[in-house]
Amino acid sequence: MPDTSEAPPEQESGPAAHTVTRIVLLAAAGACLLLLAAWCARPDPVADPPAREPIPPKLGTLPGFTEPGKGSAAERGSPQHRELWDDTTKGVPEVVRSARFRGDAVALIDGDRGLGVAAADTGRTAWSIAEDAELTGGGGAQYRHSSSSGSPLLTEAGTGWSALVEYVQDSPPGDTEHTASGIAALSGADGSVRWKARIDDDLPALESGGYHLMAMEAGTEVAVGTVASGETGRASREARSVAIDAATGEERWRKKGLWASAVAGDTVLMQDAREADLDATPEKSLNGGGSLVGVDAETGDVTWSLADRYGRAHAAATAGDTALVVAETASDNGAEEPDSAEFLIIDARTGKVLVEFPEDGRPECASDDVDVIACTVDLGGKGFRQVATWRAADREGTVSAHVATGSVLHGAWNGALIAHSGRRDGTAIALDPAGTTIAKDLQGQFLAGSDTHTLFATYATGSTDPGYQVYRTAR
Q1: By its UniProt entry, which Pfam families does this protein fall under (predicted)?
Q2: What percent of the chain has pLDDT over 90?
Q3: What's this model's pTM, rounded to 2 decimal places?
Q4: How far apart are CA 292 and CA 270, in angstroms?
């Protein structure tokens, strides 16, 4: 039977066939390209917007300040080179509220406001005293840590260094119904009393449990205590400050109506005590306080006043014979709480304003208590913070030429700033005067430091009381 199915057409060959194939393929490819172009041209509601060029930060400077020199970062080392001991070390306080290093020792205020001195390298306690405990060699005087006291007050005056403390005592001796207040110098070596001086002897005797001594400040040569006749945190019109020679315990002078805000070099910075809230923290101390005056630490003479320019002012920190002052203008003095405050650095000897930070700069500042006041501040008015560093000995300042990282300022160490990193793990960073990060992932919050040691508070998850760690530094 013959095959009736149609045979497939024979495939053409040769140049003509290849030409047809290429035309078909090119046409198909062109159609695909047109479809792809049309698809790409469709608007995409979720597409990222075109990338914008980053806005350069607006920076500024301060009159007379210069840009810091290069190479300073490598010279400053790390504030946490090697951990030495911490709150779990046997025999040390479980909690430290504040501290101050002196040579190879560290003075600590513990969680119950007791005072102790330990070896900076090991934490081994040399001596300690609890609040209301009797001072060694103090004739019945009891140690008292008032609410206005901050870090331990230490002085090199006399033989060896001493811790200056407040005390209360039955007055007169044997009269347990009344108390007296004063200042005592305790030996840094063993805590024994070197001298004690009553400073409320011209005030009416308080009932037992009352307390005259309201605040105390100290410098290298003088301790100044403020007393008041009232039993509350508010000083009365009878408030006065008494200056005691830090080496001998002898009274130098007393001033009515003034209370000590700080001691800078040979000058006591004092505030009008008639309305001052002596229990206020430094950042709140403008509330109700008067203006600032400078008093010669040797003679008690008032040498200058800021009252003609600022109705309220407070010394927030000192470095050498200069001071960081928080102030508001005299015209705003009637306000219960200042809406804004000015930050200044003044010459404590003359009251001359050396540095004025811009009012909207929102500076955060810290001092090493020796020579440096360092701040992060918005000098350009656009939220970009720079590092401004003031050195008292040289009367010179520098401003970083770029934006500083870090959020909350913790303190100053060896000319550098310790600031919170802004990370959730709670670490800190160290910034040099150029704003360069010289150490990162620092554990905890800076509390105290020296050239050789630092102490950081640490916060465990769920804990209300901080722990702490003591480190050897690297330079």
Answers
A1: PQQ_2 (PF13360)
A2: 38
A3: 0.79
A4: 6
